[in-house]
Specification:
This protein is α/β, with parallel strands linked by helices. The chain folds into two domains: 210 residues, FAD/NAD(P)-binding domain (3-Layer(bba) Sandwich), CATH 3.50.50.60; 292 residues, FAD/NAD(P)-binding domain. Strands 2, 3, 4, 5, 6, 18 and 19 form a seven-stranded mixed beta sheet that branches. Strands 8-17-9-10-13 form a five-stranded parallel beta sheet, covered by helices on one side. It has a three-stranded antiparallel beta sheet with strand order 14-15-16, with no helix packed on it. The protein binds NADP nicotinamide-adenine-dinucleotide phosphate. NADP nicotinamide-adenine-dinucleotide phosphate binds next to helix 8.
């Protein structure tokens, strides 16, 4: 892009200073404590609007082969892979009223995938399904999740509207005892936890939030009864309403254009603008995406993962703004490595980053007609400090007469709420409806958070064991002292922007661990030495992106401006390399994760 030509050392120094000032404007002393969770008096924000009151049922008291905690893509894929290898009794336990996880809960108007559908939707080869849009609507993705679950025979044994309350290993019988909030108490030979990442909605902890007398909900629990319409729009219930939306992250960017179309007036309360890049969604044919031979989807998603993991690839099949910006995503990923000439590398990186961000800011100016509004919509931080977003509708919405942007950066967000609306500075914005697009808590979804008590061998609690020594796993999946417990999508593995791909690889691995244990009559449990070796691998080439996140504008990526957690939390060479490592390990070293059953069991 031409913008790089303007990037003199002086221009870069100015940018650095502007980024510093904009960050300082936003850092709050209360950090992550600024948020409220939807418990106690705010519990109605988290209620399931889609399932209604769950039907009465008898508590379950039986025994299954595998209990899968979580019915999102992780749990569904684990179940599907296990069933395909002949495991009979697989029980998925899910808090929502059906399969789908994040796609069950998030049904807000405008919801779409923002990773290409043909690489995001898993098991396309196996199900024969070919998405029809480059970026699929949420409902299509939710239905695909249900399709995989049903084709894999997971529905009959599943427990919905049910939350697992404890997992306890019983050494005598060699089984896990699973209890739930519906009075269930059953046994499982293996437990797979697929509890997701961003699962618990959060609200701004502003004074007076409980006073608001208008209608209010969070985007992950959309109230179509009030708004009318569907995820495609047509929100007729808002035609004469003053609607406010708080939050302009990946969710806000998708929901604002739909609200703008239908609300009487829309106030968008923004604290930090997102980077909004070109989306170019379009219908696709099977031919466009090469869906003409077995394995086409696997090849395509491997190609995408290669590119966004910083590996070289002969071609770029997806060819979108994720892949074209892949060089700038490396710092977001743990694959960010230390090159030999670090100073030169960082200097080149900074120029590329500034060019990209100039391009993003120039786009705002081109699209938004009011110069003052355009100025407020420009993001001043380095690319990928926040989750990049993509839209050809969001910035355009601010050219409508019924849309007002309210910049709340100087007040560190909306300041307070009254019976009638939201206060920012000297102005009270009176509203009929306030929608929170304020995201989700970080670090509370995995089993290490302690929300779900897990007691292993000898009654040891997982989070106590990890509190003293730090997380200890082999490849992120298994831990000594917690036999036959397999964790998916968690710490000490390797994340990617295409999270369903990661989950599918984890599901294959989880199923292989169960198969190996069954074949050899063993427990799945790594030795201490195997854990140590894995921790050493993580530490050996630990990513050095702390400097980057520390300079970023606050958000959930950097604990609201405080930086990343200490210690190696992910495999340093990225998801593509990690999956290859797992495959090799399965072929050569699987015994490291197995342990003979105790005498009591045999
Ligand atoms: P988010 O990225 O955490 O955004 C929350 C928004 O709320 C931010 O704009 C934040 O401002 C704002 N906010 C919080 N407190 C505020 C306050 N007191 N006053 C004003 N604004 C306030 O949440 P999200 O947009 O729901 O996205 C979460 C994640 O879900 C994404 O990063 C992505 O991983 C995933 N997602 C994916 C898709 C997709 O692929 N289709 C779509 C949506 C979401 P600050 O930035 O200033 O904190």
């Amino acid at each position: 892009m031409a913008h790089s030509q303007e990037l003199t050392p002086e221009a870069l120094a100015d940018l650095r200073e502007r980024y510093r000032i904009e960050r300082e404007r936003r850092v709050r002393p209360d950090g992550t404590r600024q948020y409220l969770s939807a418990g106690a008096e705010f519990g109605y924000y988290a209620a399931d609007p889609y399932a209604g009151e769950p039907a009465e049922r008898e508590p379950v008291r039986d025994r299954v082969d595998v209990a899968v905690v979580g019915g999102g893509f992780g749990g569904i894929l684990a179940g599907a892979r296990l069933r395909r290898q002949g495991v009979e009794r697989v029980r998925v336990i899910e808090k929502g009223g059906d399969f789908g996880g994040t796609w069950y809960w998030n049904r807000y108007p405008g919801i779409h995938c923002d990773v290409e559908s043909h690489v995001y939707l898993p098991m396309l080869d196996e199900t024969g399904y070919v998405p029809e849009w480059k970026y699929a609507p949420g409902e299509e993705i939710r239905r695909h999740a249900v399709r995989i679950a049903e084709q894999s025979g997971l529905r009959a044994n599943a427990l919905f509207s049910t939350t697992v309350t404890s997992l306890t290993w019983d050494d005598t019988s060699g089984t896990w005892i699973v209890t739930t909030d519906r009075g269930d108490r059953f046994r499982a030979t293996y437990v797979v936890t697929a509890t997701g990442t961003l699962t618990e909605l959060k609200l701004p902890g502003v004074p007076g939030i409980e006073k608001f007398e208008g209608h209010t909900f969070h985007t992950s629990r959309w109230d179509y009864g009030y708004t009318g319409g569907t995820p495609d729009g047509g929100l007729t219930g808002l035609a004469d309403k003053r609607v406010g939306v708080v939050g302009t992250g990946a969710t806000g960017i998708q929901v604002v254009p739909k609200l703008a179309e239908d609300a009487g007036h829309l106030y968008v309360f923004q604290r930090t603008p997102s980077t909004v890049d070109v989306r170019a969604n379009r219908p696709t044919t099977a031919r466009d995406v090469g869906a003409d031979h077995d394995g086409w989807a696997r090849e395509r998603r491997d190609n995408f993962l290669r590119i966004v993991s910083g590996e070289s690839a002969e071609e770029d099949r997806v060819a979108d703004r994720w892949t074209s910006s892949a060089g700038l995503l490396e710092k977001l990923l743990p694959s960010f490595r230390r090159p030999a000439d670090r100073a030169a590398f960082e200097a080149a990186y900074e120029v590329a980053d500034a060019a990209k961000m100039n391009e993003i800011r120039a786009r705002v100016e081109e699209v938004v007609t009011d110069p003052d509004t355009a100025e407020k919509l420009k993001p001043w931080y380095r690319y990928a400090c926040k989750r990049p977003t993509f839209s050809d509708l969001y910035l355009q919405a601010f050219n409508r007469d019924n849309v007002t942007l309210v910049d709340t950066a100087d007040t560190h967000g909306i300041e307070r709420m009254t019976e009638h609306g939201v206060v920012v500075g000297d102005t009270e914005y009176e509203l009929d409806c306030l929608i929170f697009a304020t995201g989700f808590s970080v670090g509370v979804s995995g089993i290490h958070s302690g929300r779900l008590p897990v007691h292993g061998r000898g009654g040891t609690r997982l989070q106590d064991a990890w509190a003293t020594l730090g997380p200890r796993t082999l490849h992120g999946f298994t831990s000594n002292g917690f036999p036959n417990l397999i964790q998916m999508g968690g710490t000490q593995s390797a994340p990617s922007v295409n999270f369903t791909h990661v989950l599918d690889e984890h599901a294959v691995h989880a199923a292989a661990l169960v198969a190996a244990a069954e074949a050899k009559g063993c427990l799945v449990e790594p030795s201490r030495e195997a854990e140590e070796a894995w921790l050493a691998t993580l530490a050996e080439d630990a990513p050095d992106h702390e400097w980057f996140h520390a300079e970023c504008t606050p958000g959930y990526y950097n604990a609201e401006g405080r930086g990343r957690p200490n210690g190696p939390t992910a495999y340093p060479h990225g998801a593509f390399a990690f999956h290859a490592l797992l495959k090799r390990w399965r072929e050569e070293s699987m015994d490291q994760a197995l342990r003979p059953r105790t005498p009591a069991r045999t």
